[in-house]
Design goal:
CATH superfamily of the largest domain: P-loop containing nucleotide triphosphate hydrolases
Bound molecules: adenosine-5'-triphosphate, magnesium ion
Number of helices: 18
Strand order of the largest sheet: 6-7-8-3-9-10
Largest sheet: 6 strands, mixed
Number of domains: 3
Shape: globular
Number of strands: 20
Oligomer: single chain
Distance between the termini: 54 Å
Radius of gyration: 23 Å
Structural class: alpha/beta
CATH class of the largest domain: Alpha Beta
């Protein structure tokens, strides 16, 4: 390991274009050993592109790239890994039909006698790694169906097992909440204390200021500044990031709350959630709060029909919604922006316009209008509102920045004009500037009478946006709190089901 304070990773005026798109104009970053360096910037600023160059996934068009003082050029991700660089991506990249252990040791299985893969040794090493990270995960289970939080932990375990000297985490906490974040930070600090160089990308400023010692700001593909955390403030960083004043977050406007739109009664799913009953009325924003793993997303998935349930009913506008049929839910007037947008929300191989218009394709085709221009017409206004930064609407969604992919999924559902919109982690991965736009949009939709069921792990978002907070703890609704009574304490108490939790 290099001495603390020595420069481990250095990028100087690195350039990268994808055809006409200049993703990186001048990316610079200097990271020292024994330090945690934050890299911040708006959606599409070029952070992930820079990281992918370091990872050997992309090759730079120009500029310098030095590792421990030596110029390097990685032609593959394997070359970058061999040089001691580990990257944890924004979107976990596990193979669903392989076990946790197989994913962990992908491409470097220990080989025992007779050149057979030594599974026992692998499972043991996996267990040891997880216990170092303070998690209990069955190394033998398949990766399929793991929560994003668990998938992320596996990626981190993988990096640690590779004994990397440079560890880059691209929004590792986006899908984690409280406890998991604390655990991750404890691990990150111990890796720093061992003299490794860490790069941490996040849109959450509290985390940047809590964890990191240095921060580099990027804007529009360019390096803006590097400051010691102790010598700057969140406000200063934000203004460097966006180059303008940011509108107030959570612009909640009062809406007229009308008739019940969604009625959920006695919903049961063995081992997942129990006796879940609630209503969402027209114009109302109801938040499902709670810890990651409490069952919030599972309830949402059951309501929308992605997953089945054992008992109970879901009623929309007075009509029973057939279980286990997202199609029936859509027809009844539901929209659903899922948590894991990569897997569930976005047809990544399709163009932006196609994605935005996919849901209303049937309507368009009935009119004999499935043409690219019809798609663009349908998609244009919504993408514009969400400030999806793409050069052209027919750009492929796979090449969009993480935050922009999210916006496309939201836009896609808005195009269906649902009477109930279920939205799981609405602003995950979305930068501060656009976050207030998404909040304003949700608030406006409620103002027009849409019923909104929002799941959020960000307490300020829950308290800022919701008319009513339903707290989920271990698969049960443990509290139903009115906006006026919702405080961090009342929500967290019910979320951890300690004293004072409502029945
Ligand atoms: N393979 C690609 N082909 C074309 N354009 C790309 C490709 N990869 C990235 N881009 C574009 O480059 C720009 C920078 O994207 P990047 O993913 O680096 O942003 P980011 O800073 O990581 O944003 P976010 O905070 O949303 O994750 C974006 O405009 C993006 O659409
Ligand atoms: Mg990114």
């Amino acid at each position: 390991m290099n001495a603390n304070g020595a420069v481990a990773l250095q990028l100087v005026q690195v350039r990268k274009s994808f055809g006409p798109v200049m993703a990186l104009r001048s990316g610079s970053l200097t990271v020292c050993s024994g330090s945690i360096h934050a890299l911040v910037g708006e959606n599409g600023a070029g952070k992930s592109t820079l990281v992918k160059i370091v990872a050997g996934l992309y090759q730079r068009d120009g500029g310098d790239f030095l590792l421990h003082g030596e110029s390097v050029d990685f032609s593959s991700t394997a070359a970058s890994k061999d040089a001691g660089i580990a990257v944890i991506y924004q979107e976990p990249t596990l193979f669903p039909d392989l076990s946790v252990t197989e994913n962990l040791f992908m491409g470097r299985q220990p080989v025992g006698a007779g050149r057979r893969i030594d599974r026992k040794a692998m499972h043991e090493e996996a267990t040891a790694l997880f216990s170092r990270l303070g998690v209990s995960l069955d190394p033998r289970r398949l990766a399929e169906g793991l929560s994003i939080a668990d998938q992320q932990i596996i990626e981190i375990a993988k990096a640690i097992s590779l004994d990397a000297s440079v560890l880059i985490m691209d929004e590792p906490t986006a899908a984690l909440s409280g406890v998991e974040v604390d655990r991750l930070f404890a691990v990150a600090r111990s890796l720093r204390d061992e003299g490794r160089a860490l790069v941490f990308i996040s849109h959450r400023f509290e985390e940047v200021f809590d964890l990191c010692d240095t921060v580099t700001v990027m804007r529009d593909g360019e390096y803006v500044s590097t400051d010691a955390i102790a010598e700057t403030t969140p406000a200063a960083i934000v203004s460097k990031m966006v180059g303008r004043e940011v509108a107030e977050l959570f612009p909640k406007t009062p809406a007229t709350i009308g008739e019940p739109v969604l009625q959920v009664a006695g919903l049961e799913s063995a081992g997942v959630f129990h006796d879940v009953s609630f209503e969402v009325r027209s114009g109302e924003i109801v938040a499902l709060a709670g810890l990651v793993g409490a069952g919030r997303s599972e309830i949402a998935r059951a309501v929308f029909g992605v997953d089945g349930y054992d008992a109970g009913t879901v009623t929309l506008n007075g009509t029973a919604v057939r279980p286990r049929s997202p199609r029936a839910a859509i027809r009844a007037g539901m929209g659903f922006v899922p948590e894991d947008r990569r897997q569930q929300g976005l047809v990544t191989e399709a163009s932006v316009a196609h994605n935005v218009a996919a849901v209303i394709r049937t309507k368009l085709s009935r009119l004999g209008l499935i043409t690219r221009s019809a798609e663009n017409r349908a998609a244009g206004p919504w993408s514009g509102r969400l400030e999806v930064k793409t050069n052209a609407l027919d750009m492929h969604a796979t090449t969009m920045s993480g935050g922009n992919q999210q916006k496309v999924v939201i836009a896609k559902w808005l195009a269906t004009d649902p009477s109930l919109l279920i939205i799981d982690e609405p602003t995950r991965g979305i930068d501060v500037g656009t976050k207030s736009e998404v909040h304003r949009l949700i608030s406006e939709l409620a103002g027009q009478g849409m019923a909104i069921l929002m799941i959020s792990s960000e307490l300020p978002e829950v308290l800022g946006m919701a008319d009513r907070v339903l707290v989920v703890c271990e698969g049960r609704i443990t509290a139903d709190i009115d906006r006026a009574d919702a405080t961090p304490e009342s929500v967290m108490t019910a979320a951890t089901n300690t004293i004072g939790a409502a029945s």
